[in-house]
Amino acid sequence: MTRPNSIVALDPTDERNQASAILAPRPATLDGKVIGLLSNNKPHSEELLRMIAKFIGERYSIKGIVAHNKGGHQWPARREDLEELAKKCDVAVHATAE
Question: How far apart are CA 55 and CA 59, in angstroms?
Fold first, then answer.
């Protein structure tokens, strides 16, 4: 039973599924690399990615930018789109924003 004026906090994490994350290999430098930008179509996500690309471009001599919008945050990117990005890009940045 809760007391009046009390707050009940719930933790939605699932302790049973604690798979460890493995980071993708990183290049030693971004010089000469093609950067992929993957937007999930949330408000400001493409603006955030443009800012990230500008930041990277100011620090490295990148070869180019490939931008893709996956169309919505409700579902994962299509396999074909990810494979195409992997073919065209050396590294990729995915962003979500609001």
Answer: 7
